[in-house]
Amino acid sequence: MTIQLFSEETTQTRWRDRMRARRAILASSRLAKAKPERIERVIGKWASKYPVTDMETARTDRAAVCSVSERARSQEGCLLRSIAVARAAKYRRRSITWCSGFALEPFRGHAWVEVGGVPVSENVEIADYTKSLEVRARGDADVSAASGESAGAGLLEPDRMMEPPPAAPVRPRDLFGLAKDKRLLVVAALMALVGSGLTLLIPGFIAKFFSDGSFSLPSLGWIGVFLGVLLASGVAMVFQYYYLQKVGETIVRDARGKLSNHLLRLQIKEYDERSAGDLVSRVAADTSSLRTGFLQIFVACTTGFPLVIGTCALMLFLDPFLMGTALALIVGLGFVLFAVSRLIQGASLVAQQKLGSLTSQVQRDMGGIRTIRATNATDSEASMLEGRVEDAWQAGLKMAKVQSIVSPIANIGFQLSAIVVILVGAYRTSIGAMSISELVQFAALLFILVSPLGQMASALSQLHSSLGSLQRINEILDLPREDELDMANLLSPELLKTLEASAKPNAPAIEFDDVVFTYGTREFGQEMDDADSLVLHKLNLQVPEGKRVAIVGPSGAGKSTVLQLIERFYDVNRGAVRVFGKDIRDYSRSDLRDVLGYVEQDAPVLSGSLRENLTLGLGDVGDDRCMEALERVNLGYLATRSEQGLDGPVGESGASLSGGERQRLAIARALLSNKRILLFDEATANLDSHNERQIGDVLRNMAGNRTVLVVAHRLSTIMDADLIHVLEHGRLVASGTHSELVVKSQIYRNLASEQHLV
Ligand SMILES: Nc1ncnc2c1ncn2[C@@H]1O[C@H](COP(=O)(O)OP(=O)(O)OP(=O)(O)O)[C@@H](O)[C@H]1O
To answer: ipTM exceeding 0.85?
Structure first.
C-alpha cells in the first residue's frame, strides 16, 4: 500500500522550469537514499550558503519541482522533492531561504496524505524527516481504516496539466541575436563606416567652390580627389550590401531550419490544436520578415546613425546655435515618429495572423477538393476563401494606413525643419554670425541628413513588424519538443539500467493498467470523475506476446485511442501503459517506437515515390526487400507500372493510388519495418475480400514471432484472433475468443449478428 503526499501548490509552471526541475529531481535521487542526518546536513549547508531570498523565484522552483514529481509521489518522493527544490535553488544560486522552509520541514502546511488515492489526513504538520517516517507508520496503520482502493482524487499527469505560457515579448536585441556570423557583420559595419565617413567629406568639397565668399572652381586635383572619394564610398557600399544580404539570407535559413525542425517534433496535441496553413505561413512569410527588419535596422545603425552623428558634429562645429535649432526640431520629429510607429507592431501581428488563416483555408480546400466538388460546396468554400482574402486585405490596409502616416510625417516634418533652419541660417549670415560658405556647408549637411533619417524612420516601422514575426516564430519554438519531455532522455545510464531490471519478466507485450484518459487538458487538481469527458475509464487489458489480438466495439468506444496511447502520442492521465513490462514513460519515445509498427486508420501516403513511402524511417533498404514486401500485400504490380519502378511517384498524398492500395502500401511498410509489435487500426477496412484474406494470412503467419494488435470493425477479419477485447464507452466489457464471446458478451453478439456472423 502506498502513501502519497501531494503538494497543494498550483503548478502552472513554464516548461523550461519544469525541465530544470526534472534534472534537479534526478540529480537528487541518489541523495534521497542517504541517511536522514546527511540529507538535513546537505540541505542546511545549501540553505546557509545561498541565503538570498527571492520569493518569486523560490516559488517558481518549488512549483516546477512539484509539477514534475509524479515519480516522487511517495513518502521518499516528498523528501526527494524537497531536496530537488533546494538543489534547483542552489543551481540558480539564490532563494534558498524560503525553499529551505519547505526543504527542511518538507511537509509542514504544504501537504496532505493520501492512501491509495484517498485523503486520510489534511495538512499534516511534520517538522523533520524523522517525524515524517513516523507519519508514514501512522499512515500505514490508517490504511486498514481507509478503503485502500484509490478514490481517483489527486493529480493529473504533469505534462498534461500545464499549458505553456504565452511567449515572452520580443525585444529589438533579440532580432540582432539572430545574426550568428559576427565577423561578416563587423566587416559590413566597417564598410558602412568608411562609406559614411567619405560621404561626410562631400560638404567640405562643395564649400571649396565658395572658399573666398564667392563662387570659384577649385583645382583639377581637388576635383579628382572628390571623384575618387565618391567612387570609394560607392565601392564600400557594394561590399556592405553584399555582406549584409549574406547575413540576412543566413538569418532566414537558420530561422527556417530551426522552425521547421521544431515543427516536426512538437507534441501530437499541438497538431490537433493548430492549423497547418498557419504553421506554413510562419515558416515562409514570418522568417522573410526577419531578414527585412534586420537589414533595415542594421543599415540604419551602421550607416544612418554614424552619418547622423557625423553631420550633427560638423553642423555643431560650423554653428552651434543653428545646430541647436536643427536638433530641437529633429528630436521633436523623432518622438512623433516613434509614437506612430509603435502602432505598426500590433497592426502587423494582426496582418500576419490573417495571412496565416488565409493560408490554412487554401490548404484545407486543396486537401479536400474532391469532397468539396462532390458536395457542390465550391461556391460556399469560395466565398469563405474570399472572406479570408478580404480579412487579410483589411488587415494589410490597416497596417498600410499606419505606415502611410509615418512617411508623410517624416517628409513634411523634415522639410519644415529644413526651411526653418535655412531661414534662421540666412538671418545669422545677414547679421555676420556665420559666413556664406559655412551656410552652404550647413545646408549641404542638412540634406545629407535626410537620407539616414528617412532610413531610420522606415527601419523603425519595419522593426515593429519584424518583431511581430519573431514573436510568432518564438511562440512555436517555445513549445516543448516531444523528446524534451521524455524522462528517459534525462536519466543516467545507471538509473536506466535499474528501470530495465524493474521490468517484469514474462510480462505481456502490451498491458493497460487502470488507464484513465481524456484528450482535454485539465486544471491542476481537477477531479477525474467527470465520466462524460473521459475517453478511457480505468481500462485494464493485456496483449500477450506473439499473439494476434483484436479490439472491437462500437464507434467512439476508444479503440484508436488505445493504439495512440501505446504509440505515446498522448500520455495517460492515470494508470500506466506497459510494453514488455516497462512503463512506456520509462522509454524514450524513439526507443518505444522502435519496437512498434503502426498502420493508421486512414493509412495516409506521403507525396513522393513508392520507395520513399515504403522505407520511411528505415534508411537504406534493398530493392529485393522492398519488392518482397510489396508482393506480400499484392502490390508488386505498382513497381512495374511506371518506368521508374520503385522510384515512380504516388501523387500528392498518394492520389494516384486507390484507397485499398494506400492501405496495402502502409501495411507493406509496417511489414518491412520488422517491428516486434504491429498495431493495425482498421488497416483492412478498404480491401476487397481477396486482398483481405491474403493480408489476414500474412498476419496469421507472423503470429509467434510478432505480436499483432488489430482494431477492426469487420469481425470477419478477426474471428480467428487468439484473443478479442470488446470495448464500450472506454471500458473493457469482455475478452475471449470469438466462440467464447458469442456466448458471453451481449455487445459482441450484437456486433456479430449485425454482420451475419452468428
Ligand atoms: N484528437 C482528439 N481530440 C479530442 N477528442 C478525440 C480525439 N480523437 C478522438 N477523440 C474522441 O475520443 C473518443 C474515442 O475516439 P476513438 O477514435 O478512439 O474511437 P474508436 O473506437 O476508434 O472509433 P471508430 O471505430 O469510429 O474509429 C471519441 O469520442 C472521439 O470523438
So the answer is: yes
